Amino acid sequence: MGYTNVPILLALLVVFVTPMVFADDNAPIPASKPGVEQWFKTHVAPLPQRKGLDPALVAAEAAPKTITVNPKGGEFKTLTDAIKSVPAGNTKRVIIKMAPGEYKEKVTIDRNKPFITLLGQPGANMPVITYDGTAAKYGTVDSASLIILSDYFMAVNIIVKNSAPAPDGKTKGAQALSMRISGNYAAFYNCKFYGFQDTICDDTGNHFFKDCYVEGTFDFIFGSGTSMYLGTQLHVVGDGIRVITAHAGKSAEEKSGYSFVHCKVTGTGSGIYLGRAWMSHPKVVYAYTEMTSVVNPSGWQENKQPANDKTVFYGEYKCSGAGSQTAKRVPFTQEIDANEANRFLTLGYIQGSKWLLPPPAL
C-alpha cells in the first residue's frame, strides 16, 4: 500500500472513532455535583459529534467568522461597531472576541442578526459591558445595558452591569436592567450580571445559564422566559424585603418558567424570598440548590391577590442549607416528587437537543 492512502485512512479512522450522538432531552441532571460536568459533556457535545440540531444552526456553525474588539484600538474599538458590521439576515456564526476592558455603551443586538457570540477571557480580565440606563429614561425593559433580540446568541466570560444607583424607594423609574434577553435559543457561560432592581429581564424564549453569577435586590430575574440556570450563584444585596424571581406566567397553558439547578442563594439578613407572583401563573423550581440562612423561612412572598394561591407553581426539590427548610413555607409551595422534578432537570425543558452547544474553545 502506498503512502498516498494514509491521509484517507486517518480520515476514515476519525469518522469511526467519533460517534455521532443525539442529545438526550430526557436525561436528568444528576443529583451529585461531581456528575454535572459529565452530564453536560455527554448531552451537550460539540457540533461534530451531534445529531438532531436545527439545520440552520448546523449551517451557521460550518464556517464561523471571528472579529475582534478592543477599546484601546483594534479591528473595532466599540462593541456597537462590531455588531453593526454583522449583516442583517446573518446566516453564519460570528464570534466577537472582546479584549479586556470596560465597554461603556448601551448595546442592542437586533432580531435580524442571529448567530452572534460574545467571547471574553475568563478570570480577572473578563470584559465589562456597562451603562447607566434607567426606566425613567428608557422604559423598564429598554433600560438594559445589553439587549439581545436575536436568536442563537451566546455569551462566554462576559460581565454585564447597570451602573445606575440603587433605587431609593422614592425616585420614580429607578429600575435599571443589566440585560434583557428576548431572543430564542440563547446560552450564557461563566457570565456575571450586576444590578439592583430588575437585573435580568429573562423575557421570552429558551435560555440556558451555566456557571453564572446574578446580583440584585428585587425581582432581579423577571419575565416570561423558559430558562434553566445551572450552577449559578444568586446573590442578593441591599436591605429590607428582597425577591429573586418575578416570573410572568399568565396562564396554565403557558410553557414558560425558571428552573434553578445546583445553584446557590447567598446574601445578607433573612428577608430574601425565592419569588413572587408578578403575574397570575408564575412557574419557578429550585432543585439541588444550596440556600443559606438569608432565605426567609416562608420561602415565597405572600400573594397580593389570594386567587393566585391556586395558580402559582413554586417547587423545591432536594435543596440544602439552612434556608431550604420547608416546615414554615407558605402553603401554596408545591410538594414535587422525582417524576415532576425531572421535567425541570432535563434539556427537554428548554428544547436543548435542538440548539444548545458548548462554548467555543478560547
TrEMBL record:
Pfam families from the xrefs?
Answer: Pectinesterase
Quick one: which pathway?
Glycan metabolism; pectin degradation; 2-dehydro-3-deoxy-D-gluconate from pectin: step 1/5
Top-level taxon of origin: Eukaryota
Give start and end of each Pectinesterase catalytic domain. 73-352
* Enzyme Commission code(s) on record: 3.1.1.11
Q: Which GO terms describe its molecular function?
A: pectinesterase activity
For biological process, the GO terms are: cell wall modification; pectin catabolic process
Keyword list (alphabetical) reads: Aspartyl esterase, Cell wall, Hydrolase, Secreted, Signal
Q: What class of enzyme is it?
A: hydrolase
Q: Where in the cell is it found?
A: Secreted, Cell wall
Q: Does the keyword Secreted apply?
A: yes
The record's listing under InterPro entries reads: Pectin_lyas_fold (IPR012334), Pectin_lyase_fold/virulence (IPR011050), Pectinesterase_cat (IPR000070)
- Family statement drawn from the similarity comment of this UniProt entry: Belongs to the pectinesterase family.
Q: What is this protein called?
A: pectinesterase
Species this protein is from: Arabis alpina (Alpine rock-cress)
